[in-house]
Prior knowledge:
Layout lengths: L6 H10 L6 H12 L4 E2 H7 L5 H14 L2 E5 L5 E5 L14 E5 L5 E4 L20 E5 L2 H5 L4
Parallel strand pairs: 4-6
Antiparallel strand pairs: 1-3, 2-3, 4-5
Helix pairs in contact: 1-2
Amino acid sequence: MTQVKNTFQFEDMLKKHHLKKTAPRLRVLSMMYSKTTATSQPDLENVMHDIDRVTLYRILNIFEEKGIIHKVFDLNGTANYAVCSSGCQENHHHDEHLHFNCTRCKNVYCINDLYLPGLTLPEGFKAESFTLYANGICPKCEKKPHH
Length: 147
């Protein structure tokens, strides 16, 4: 379940990450925190008509760089963005959780409450990040009759 934040918390978040408080950044943060699934830039463009594509692209990039959001790919290879856990920092994401792609509704869910064992790699390998995906049917789609 997403945590609802207010404008002051978003302003504090921007300040903490040394970002200027701008109306478009605050709107994108508000929209991202209101979603229960990852969302793509085109989906954001469809609901945020007053923010042009280039500005939205820059906002998503700086938020990802600062550890506010992380990128996850859907079944079509489209980049989607989801809010990071509080453990993420600038240029170092801790989004080692399961990303669940629903094959029916095409939504991407971040599953944070699943225990994942540590990653043990062969000698000489050093992981900087990893992404774990599962594909299947989400609870919403499981309840609906399939056409």
